[in-house]
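ok here's the first one, seq then struct tokens
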Amino acid sequence: MTRMGFSIAATNVDQYRETIERLRKAGKVGKGLRKNLRKQIADAGKPAVDDVKQTVLSIPITSHGGGGAQRRRYNVDRATTERAKRTAARRGAGLRRTIASSVAIQQTAKGIKIVTRSTKLPEDQRSLPRHLDSPKGWRHPVFGNPSNWVQQQGKPYFGETIKKHAPGFRRAAVKAIEDTIAQIEQ
């Protein structure tokens, strides 16, 4: 599985890990505090996630000639059941919209990351978020036709966008951790 992530390094990573561990050991009280901490961190990261989604959706289209209709037909042809075919015909989401919907905050005991969840993309397209983020772009056959290859341009949308939000996100996450520690120690 290809995963693209951006970790905001902070001196408080150990503090975050210790806090999560203390909350796990605190039982029922800790469960409520952990849920509250996760919500505060998710709320703090929402502007960065929303900005990444908006940025990827605003990447200019570099090809012409009805790609949306072709992509919809291609997705319908790949569907294996009648229900899946109807869903593919109705949705017809493009690459940028699919990548935007896969951006999320991931919180674990090890830390906090903003990631694109490639499992939300079709299996043969899971490396595309990384390629689209690269100015070099990538080469690919047009809808699987091995005799017709094109170069697709990418545009950085992920790391640069998140870096703009990093200081505010970091401050809010540290404040949430410190508030949670204060509640534990009461």
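and now the second one, same deal
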Amino acid sequence: MPRSFDLTAESPTRVDQFHAAFADKDYWLARIAASDTGPGTASLDAFAVDALGNVSVATTVTLLRDELPRLVTQLGRGALKLVHTESWCRVGADCVQGQMSAALSGVPFAASGTAVLTPMNTGCELRFAAAVEVKVAVIGGMVEAFIGSQLADGLAAIQAFTTEWIDDHS
């Protein structure tokens, strides 16, 4: 049974600035370069923005087994590739909605989530709802809890990176 997580992060940046960053390929290349993959590798596999400003992105991160907790590495053999997709679109005049998914090659792991960026007096708020599922008896729940504990830090890091990137490119 999937484990659900609800997270919130705030930024002094406006919703339209976030959406503009998401629609910029240089943002994604910088975000990948700034991600902490350790000695692993990360790539931007797909990037598209349509005429309405809808953004679709796919990335792959190759994780080195010796950099991961044993709890995770015992789930599969060989190189672990995390394939991550995101899509972002405007909803109404001042909100942006996102869809995310992640899968780990050779491991019965799946994650998905929805995000909404809404305006606040001081910038914007990101509300993120995620579901993580690891279909392995006995340890699946522990791995789901571990991944969930990493989500809050990851979301805060992405929010901080995006805010800084926008400040540097405005």
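notes on #2: Residues 140-169 form the longest helix (30 residues). The mean pLDDT is 85.
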